[in-house]
Amino acid sequence: LALALLAGLYVKSHLEEFRLLLAKPIGAGLWAAVFVSVGLSLIVNSEILRLGIRALGVPLGPWEGLALNMSTMAANYFIPFKGGAGLRAYYLATRYRMTLADFFAQILVVSVVALSTGSLLAFLGLLVAAPDQAQWPLLTYFGGTFLLGWSSIFWVGRLSFARRRPRLAALAHGWDAFRANPGVLWRLAIYQTAFFLVLAQANRLCFTAFGVDLGFGQALFYSTVQIHSTIVNLTPAGLGVVEAFAVLTGKALGFDPPQALLAQGLNRLAQLSLLVLIGLIGWPRLRRQPLAPPKAAAGPETERPPEPGSAGLGPEKPPDSEAA
What we know:
The structure is a single chain. By secondary structure, the protein is mainly alpha-helical. Helices cover about 70% and strands about 0% of the residues. α3 crosses α13.
């Protein structure tokens, strides 16, 4: 409510600027391009979600992953702290019997890959888009976040304190599934890079709708910086938080706050429209899905490495009667 009040006061004090920006109508072709690019970014994001879940032995299909991601992202607009993730956890637990430890492990790993990949692209985008404004504190922050993020994937799971506590040990076991499969990590990084590139084009089109000629390097920097707003995502879908990051980033790139707010609003409008449309269609179909067997068959992509000597991480297989 406080953020909404502040936003309303800001719009009231800059009402004439908003009127001038909204006076020019947006063409049908540009509307279509915005919706297509935002839709593509949502599809790539759904594939990232699906790849992370499949790495832990859950055979999530393409349509199922898309519908699940769209439904939970739509729920984020009504529940703070990314509460839509709770619906995703519920679905995966009831349909595939995925444990909460595995669920949180894949969220952490995918988030770390997104943050580190986005930091690298922001580092490069800042050098390309605004070399005169590429200050050492920003370059150090993005470069350090990239290095810390990728290195943490390989050393966090080895911490001894995590092995001595059952709950942390279960989480570390899920983390090990990614650490032992570099191919999945590289694919996550490639998909995440594709997501940021598509999102940069979507944001570029949104700024074009309000008269801002945003270069692709600037759009890439703008889009990748937004991933850092998820760290403080306290409101439903980050409403207000993402917009604040958009204004700050826009000022750093040299365009006015009203332009940044309207461009971000157009992006949200396209995103929310697609999320509600596909979410309303997809969630009822997801609820009618039959339960998977307790041990779903896993292909080469979803095989999980054994964890020798890891007690308390799941039911042990009973000994063969002949061996007994």
